[in-house]
Structure formats: structure tokens, C-alpha cells
Amino acid sequence: MKKIATLCLFSIAWLVACRKDDAPSIRPIDLTVELSFDADNKDYGFPVENIEVALTNTNGGAPIYANTDASGAALFPQVNAGLYNISAVFKVSPAAYLAKTGVSVKDSVVFNAVGNNVNIYAATNISKVQLSLVPGKVGDWVIKQVYYAGSDLKDGASFRDQFIEVYNNSNDTLYADSLYISRLWGLQTPSSGYKYYLVNDANGQFDWTKSLNMPTGIDANKDYVYMRDLFMIPGNGTTYPVAPGKGLLIASTGINHKQPFTDDNGKDYSVNKPELTVDLSQADFEAYLGDAVIANGGNKAAYDLDNPGVTNLRVVKYDATEWILDNLGRDSYVIFKMPGGEDAGKLPAYNDPSITPPTATSKVRIQLPVAYIIDGVEVMPNDVSDLIPKKLQASLDAGYTYAPAGKYSSQSVIRKTAKTVNGRTILQDTNNSTVDFDYFEVATPLGFK
């Protein structure tokens, strides 16, 4: 009996010792974030001191902030184990940018550094994270609001009331003619288990170099994005002027979704709670797909209605029989114009690398040069466990935004107001949607936050 007791005590002591040995893997660690400028800007002599770095646990909670020293290092003492997003923003005034680079710019140049889903865990031996500050691309057009969540399935309008707003953030009149709007394609789930993603990329996105017939000699991942669908605002070049501080409302279906309607099959739809949805009958454009679907031998969606009072977008490429934004938040959005007014529909297109071998009916994704993009917004699911690989490069969007209540919540994401000058609202655009966007509890067409 004494032997058994001794053995039990020894076993307990061994287990306790093991726990003590394991403890360092979850203990807090001192984390250093080192910032430097990207290869194209590192020799200009921009200062790396006193740049604010934000560390945010992906499970929620307020960000932790620290400022860099003269070497560009920011120290975060005793960081608890977990997954973190790291971000930093550095703004250079036009005068300072000219003095350093010799290049004249109209507005401040914003550099972003970002690290997503960084595993801070003692067992991984990560105590230092190095990030590059990349200049963001600032355009006169911005994506102002995205209403992708939709409204209640029974009491609202479901996904039929979705819309996007684009906005003239400049001080000049712009012409919307030939402005393209697209959702991007990439992995729609976390990348674990996929064999065709970038193993050396923390985002885990597709490695497009592995796509069938992808040319060599190009950087298919860094210099391009791949489009899920594509629409264009029509016009002859001067048909649709947009004044400074004004925007365009682009509806999935341009009707008053607060009112009952009858679809093309004679089915009646009621709206029990009109306050949950929106009136899009005065939209500037709508994404009506019926004619394009029929022309390709398909059957149009019965509830994809064509309002003759709302101008139709030109359908370049569609992904389904109606324009339904992913209400889980797995789309990224871009607007762009083609140089010389070329047709974006004639750009090369490729199967995504997971399709092997592709068949005659496999979908292809149009390849768009990043250099053509005017603005982009990364949207993500509201649940951190559902976050997916980013589709946009950090130069276009260093962060992401989301509707906190998720699908069918009536919420939209809305770009924040930066300032008002002589009655004109100027929207915030640092190319980081995490800081540039807020949300409306109920989507508000043409509203401001």
C-alpha cells in the first residue's frame, strides 16, 4: 500500500512538473514590432520615429498602442498569448513628400503597415515582428458605402435590397462614364487543407502562379487581382458628371423595397417591417442581369426586376443570375478605369488554381492589374473564427471592415467623414478600412457618418 501511495505521489509530482514546463508556452511575452519603409521608399529618408502602432486581439477588446523609437521599433510589454492584428499609419504632407522625393502630390501620402492574424505565443518564439510601410493609393473616387448584409428574411427584403455607393472625394467634377465596379475572387474559407494557396503568405490566399496557362515573367499575386464579376457605368465620357462631394447609388434592384412587389412569375412579396429595408427606386444605376443571362441561354431570376426609371449598368461578366453580394461578408470590392477607355472585358482570364484540371464550363476570373484600381474595400465576416484570406494588397486596403451583426441585419459599412470644407464632406481615406469605416445600424442610402 505504501508503494502505491508513493507511486501516486510521484505521478502527481510529475504531472505538476509537466504543467510547469508547459506554462512558458502561454506566458505573456515582450513583443517588439519593427517598422521600415518598403523597397521603393526606404532610401528617401522618411523618419520611422514616433509612429503609432496598434495591436488588437482578434477575439475583441480595445487596441493596445505603442510608439516607435528612432530605429522604428515599438515595444509591447507582457502581451498575452493569442492571435493579433497589427497596424500602423504614417502620413506625409505634400510639402514633406516633395522635399524628400522631389515628387509633387496634391494630397498627403499615407503609408500603411499591417500584419494580420499574427500568433503571439511563447512556444512559437515570436517576440519580434517586422512590417513594411507601404504607400496607399489615393484616388478621387472612393467606395463610400457597401450594404451587403441584407435585411430580415421574413420581415425585410432579404438580399434584394443590397447596394453600393461611390463618391467624388475630390474638389473637381468627375465623370463616372466607364467607371468599373467589381467584386474580387479568392479563397472563401480559411485556407487550411488547400494545396494551391501561398504557403509563404500569412494571409494564405491562392497562389495564382499555379493557375493553368498563367504567364511566367509576371508577379501574378502581387501585381494583379482577380474578378468575380464586373459591371461598368455606361456613357460617352461626359454623360454622368458628379460634382465634388456628391456620389452615385448603385442598386442590385432599383425599386422601393419598403413596399410589396410582384416578381416576374406573379409571386407576391410583402414587407412586414419597412423600417428594416431601403427605398432604392431613385438609385442612379441598377445591376439588372436578366438580358445578359437570357442572351447566354440562361433563365433570369424572377425577382431580378428591371426598373425603367433606373439606368442599367453594362454587364461585362456575371457570376450568378442576379447580383447578390455575399451577405456573410466574403467579398472585396474595387472600382477602376481602363487606360485609354479600353474594354476590361478583354483582359486575360484564368481559372483559379484549385480547379485542376478545368473543364469547358469551369469559371474563369478576369485578371486586373492593381495599377488600374482607384479604390478598394476589403470586407470580412463578422465572426473572427470565420475570417478568410485577404484579396486586396496592403497598398489598396491594409485592413478590413464588416457589419457587426452579420447577415440579414440591415447594417451597412460606411466610410467615415474626415472633415467638411465649405459645405463639402470629405471622406476619410487612409487605405485602411479598419480605421476608415464605421457602420449604420440600418443602411442609409446617401447618408454620412
From TrEMBL:
<dbReference type="Pfam" id="PF16215">
    <property type="entry name" value="DUF4876"/>
</dbReference>
<protein>
    <submittedName>
        <fullName>DUF4876 domain-containing protein</fullName>
    </submittedName>
</protein>
<dbReference type="InterPro" id="IPR013783">
    <property type="entry name" value="Ig-like_fold"/>
</dbReference>
<dbReference type="InterPro" id="IPR032627">
    <property type="entry name" value="DUF4876"/>
</dbReference>
